[in-house]
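Your task
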Amino acid sequence: MLRPAAVITALLTSNPGRWFAVTLFFSAATVIQTWPLVLHADDKITSWTLYPDAWVFVWDLWWVKYALLDLQTNPFHTDFLFFPEGTDLYLHTLATTQGVLSIPLQLATRNLFLSWNILGMLFFVFSALAAYALAYRTTHNAGAALISGYIFAFAPFVLMRFGGHWHMSTTWPIPLLALFLLRFEDTGRLREAAAAAVCWAMLTYNNLEYGLDAALFVGFFFLYRSVVHLQRHDASALLPLWRGFAVLAVVWLAVSAPLVLPALDSVAREDVFLPADDERYSSDLVALVTPSPLWGPGKEPAIASVGHSAAGTVENTVYLGIVPLILAGLAVTGVLKTPRRVIFWGIVFLIFVILALGPYLYIGDTRSFSLFGVSFSVPLPYQIVNELPVFGERRAPARMVAFGMLGLSVLAGIGFETLTSGVTKRWKGIRSVVAVPLMTVLILGLVILEYWNPPILLYGMSNPAVLEDIADEPGDFSVLEVPWGRLNGWTASGNATGAYFANLYQTLYAKPTFGGFISRTRQSDLDWVGQQAALSYLTCVRCTEPPPAAPEYNDPVTVKSLFRRHNIKYVLVHRLVPDGAFVFDAEDSVIFRVRAYLTDIAGMAVIYEDPELTVYRNPDIADD
């Protein structure tokens, strides 16, 4: 008769049982690493205070669903932001993959925050499981795969990006891409190459930078395998290998073409603002070994300076972890026994970590060194990549560390397998049976300690019924938010906070508005803000002062005509941001001037007011 302990052991060591246990573990890890998000999943999201980029990704989710289902239009163009002329979104961080995947949740819950929180937490689990599967295929060791999955999914780089760059915290297609490439290498089945192409396409739709990094990874994979076959004098294997590459490339292009071809056209026409910031947003040697500022009680990234981003800022939180590096070092010691698996993943790790360091070697905030009285800088291979068409248009080399973490996670798994195999050879019987699980728990516990992230910072937002009433109101009209502005990834025209407001609150009132954050824009999109007289005054860059004396600013007939021309039916005046801080420094005087301007000059009437928001209606715009 089987004892209960034996039954449980048999279930967990079976293939379905093992996957169930691993899924349960990574689910629990996700809840812990994002704590206390699970308690507030329906009304809060995690967001940095100084850089509320998460608001943009809330809009992205809403817009993909709204464009595809409600408007039945191309989601890569909008005139709901940057109204009335609109703008393309091919180079915007639209995160289309997660937007499409969120649609069923949005339909089921009718709650954007809940939809993302469910999806975002599932993505951590998917990422860990995919990295686990990749490492298990490489090591055939469950403990090693568990450690690898944790390292990749919960790396400080990923957890930092979860606070505002959701397209970067979504990493699960990366290990899936690698897994299908390995399956193609082992089996020669073209469907595995096609599956790898689909993973690459999902990465591309979600984050163009990850799409470029995946291109480098795929290119290196096929180059490396070709060299191996040539060294073995096995030229006959090259034809099926490159046939698989052709299938992969064709499938990827076919799936990605609706995004990639217009994006390439925009880059070629140079009509989108793409200044070079690669040196500022490069990583450095100190950052690679500096723990995340989110570790322990920390909730916020360090504030970026004007020069090179310091360790702990959003763009330079790239901590690799001491334990993962030690395990990777153990993997290297076994390179003579298993060169195939160690060399490939070692090169992947080095390539992407070195590229993440950018065009010059930085140690801390300096790239200038002195030796025997001679000052010099150390150029790095990123300068070669930077000269390649398209690849050189990227903004932040430090983000390439995501693929470096994939290499490190697999190497760490190999290192753990090397360590435990040595123990099992030296210790026989019960000592080995006990020692290996204890080592797994100990080393995994140390990784968890190094990557510890909770608690995270959470913000909610008000949802007054008047905004839902505006969304339900029929007719074609626009909404002006005050303050307002337009913002891209580099600069703002008008009020930057107002630009973020447009993305966040439009998801509630669902009508065109004039401002917004679009990560890549034309200069003409920004210039439009200053060309609109009365509207430009309401950006509130200078609302502490009276409007200019010119008629286009303070003549009621002229101002009302401008409002009618742009069909402005409602104006939302924000007083507080979601963290409770005042929008305006001189709060009382600005609110007084804005109210006087809207009522006395623009002819608007207050229809709703609370401590955070005042809503005005334009009587000149009739109801449909």
The chain has a mean pLDDT of 92. The chain has three domains: 4-171+275-450, 172-274, 461-617. Residues 461-617 form one domain.
